[in-house]
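Readers of this paper often ask what the protein records in our data store actually look like. Nothing more is needed to write down the fold, since each code stands for a local backbone conformation. Below, we set out a record of this kind in full and without editing:
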Amino acid sequence: RERERQRRQEIDALYMSLRTLLSLEFIKVICGTVHRGRDRRREKK
């Protein structure tokens, strides 16, 4: 549980760093692509 909380904090920090460098629309496209790829991999299992 603690590790999951720490991982989420790290992802949040990374997202905020990206947000300062990239446009919100670009981040939305990237996140959508990542989630679709992850979901497809889960379906194959």
